[in-house]
Input
Amino acid sequence: MNAQEIRRAYLDFAKKNGHVIVPRANLVPDNDPTTLFTGSGMQPLLPYLLGEPHPAGSRVADSQTCFRSDDIEEVGDNRHTTFFEMLGNWSFGDYFKAEQLPWFFTFLTDIVGLDPKKIYVTVFAGDRDFQLPQDDESVKIWQKLFNDKNIDAKAAQIGSEADGYKRGIKPGERIFYYDGSKNWWSRGGKPANTPIGDPCGPDSEVFYLFDDVAHDPSFGKNCHPNCDCGRFMEIGNSVFMTYKRTERGFEELPNKNVDFGGGLERIAAAAIDSSDMFKISLLWPIIESLEKKTGKKYDDHTAAMRVIADHLRVALFLAVDGVTPSNKEQGYVMRRLIRRAIRFAFDLGIEQDLMKLAVPIIADCYYEDFPEIASRREELLATLQKEEKVFRGTLTKGIREFKKLFENSDERNHGELIFKLYDTYGFPMELSVEEAKSQNIELAADWHQQYDAHMALQRELSRTATKGQFKGGLGGQSHIHRKYHTATHLMYQALRDVLGDHVIQRGSNITEERLRFDFSHDQKLTPEQISQVENIVNEQIAHHLVVTWHEYPTDVAINEKHALGQFGDRYGDIVKVYNMQADGAKKPFSFEICGGPHVDNTEELEQEGKHFKILKEEASSAGVRRIKAALV
Output
């Protein structure tokens, strides 16, 4: 069975066992400020596990999409993904161990077709300090299930994970008692950390053994089910909420709950008997498309292709659930995922149209079971393509400058260099760290402190810089100042296009938050005129005007080249003129005398999905209007 078939079979199986199938929850939790994302199948059901009645009754099941941003750096091995689906079923005071464990075992062996000889399970070993018994009931159920498959399943005491590495597995052992650090569920972890008043209890985990994986002794001397070497993969966990913690200890609940979660991707990997989870039907088509596009093999570029497949999959679902790339909260994480995927694709030789290549294939993997994808394919693709377009120029330039800066760098200034890449070129700090890894550069231990110190100094300089420190009232030279300075030129020309050639700059001030521009005009701008100016500026930004400059004799610049300037300003004999022009255009959109600095291309103003917006238009003095605007 492929992953799509397993998902459908599971929901059908749960329905036959009396469960109501409920829709998945949004990846962005509703009315929960404590977390950015839905990170487990149980998370949306927690109120009902804590006692609130579920409107669908006492038995529900679903397939819940989940995202764990903490795992971003882990993606690249055979089993970690940031995005995954949890097949889940819950009992709210209804059935318990005697029903749950046989259902899951039957689903794995009789429906999915897993070899029961490759299945191993763990149970709770008890806790003497809190007088919590070991879970012998689950052991007896498991032994009968294995016996029905003609497997003699011995039970063994392991204890902690560390004990497992010392002890290993003895012949015939298939059921393992672990302590509360592994086989106890509460919102605080092991029994001692369980919050007062919370439901909690033992759990029983199911593992699949991959014979083709050799134990890696760097994780520990001996292998055991909870070993991290990849030989065993956890594919499901049944939590039995048996107790409530009180001031006196743990009391049995009058109505016990079951919370089951099974990893769809991991079960699908077991179904094809591959320890590489990326070879399942929800991920492998993406990798095949990368191989076909680049002519490079997965075996030679494994980590890069895994990162791209994982990150773009979650980016699509975040877009489905209403997230757009930005610099805040969920949008920031989404932007980081997209940019990281683009960076790894760059190493494969994909320098454009990554979204056009991969996103339709991802959508094809899900559209039959997720109508929200099927109905919005083009819209979702456009959202991701826009972010790719914004970032491409920054990526190319950032990688080039990184190589220059770090070629002969001293580790004492690594933080300063990473700050410079961000401040001058808009290259994200996280990608500088990625770039250092890819080039085998070991960053200084204190690089982050250096980076933070330079960032703090930049903010302080921006606040204290005098208005006239740079030509045009520029209050700093950071990347954001350059972007706003460039936007001022575009707006100046747009105002002349909308209002007329009488518009002359009368003053300017730029901070990290906004630009301010004074100009000659004796009437309040209408809403239509403001909208026209905004549209012209955004259109020019989207045209990706190349920004260059040239020095001319002042009389040539003004009288022959007709460069714009500030009326009444006194210039020296030579002036610098900035030219903003689209590739292939016969003439520039903006041609203005200015001391700089500016960005190299207006596409940099599109970064983070931002648009030029006029925030306020008002009178400054007689015959002079003032505009405040920002990239929002």
Notes: The CA atoms of residues 18 and 59 lie 7 Å apart. The domain at 479-631 is CATH 3.30.980.10 (Threonyl-tRNA Synthetase; Chain A, domain 2). The radius of gyration is 30 Å.
